[in-house]
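seq:
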Amino acid sequence: MKFLLKVIKDFPWFLWSGWGSIASIFLFLALWELGFQTYGELILPSPKMVFESMGMLLSDPSFHMDLYLTVKRGLIGFSVSLLLGTLLGLIAGYFVTASVMSRPIVTILVGIPPIAWIVLAMIWFGLSDMTVVFTVVIASFPIVFVGALQGSRTIEGDLKEMMDSFHIGFLQKVRDLYFPHLFSYLFPSWVSALGMCWKIVIMAELLSSNDGIGANLAIARSHLDTPQALALVSVIIGVLFFVEYIVFEPIKQEVESWRN
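struct:
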């Protein structure tokens, strides 16, 4: 009986979180179809045509290799930026001098457009994987760094003093105070960096590589093959959704279970 009352009470939330998401997808597809009917196939092909093109792509073994290369480059760049950004951000947040000195460097890194980094990386590393990976790291590193810096700088001093007064051990402090607090800052920065990495790796491949999804997108552009281009974009979004909601989201729910 209590469970039934809870379901009835929370029904609007279930309705919004479940059916609302499905309804938004169908609304998006309906607007997409309306755009196709209005502007035609060259400008905006129908969802059916794009999904058919995507099915042909996914059934092509050569495309599997391109997808693997793109994912590998993106994950390598993301992993490096995550490790360096988190570690250096925590160190800079702990030392006031390092925090002050890092601000102009971060401003410079953020202020330089990714396209400029791609051009420089092409000059330095040529048309190689290093060009793509370097661009991904240099563009996403500041996002993770700032998140770690803010997290380490905003730990409540009163909470630390209270734990010291109760003689709580260091490991328990890490588990109950430092880690939950830092994670609430780090995780959003990781997700933002993931989105940035995925966009940058495609752009870098489009301009500097002969393989990968970005190179396929360049070929579709040169052939004015809009269905193929949108199919590639759909694959890109699908991979991003998989990493964020299948890999990251369960980790977030497990770590932040204490909030419930």
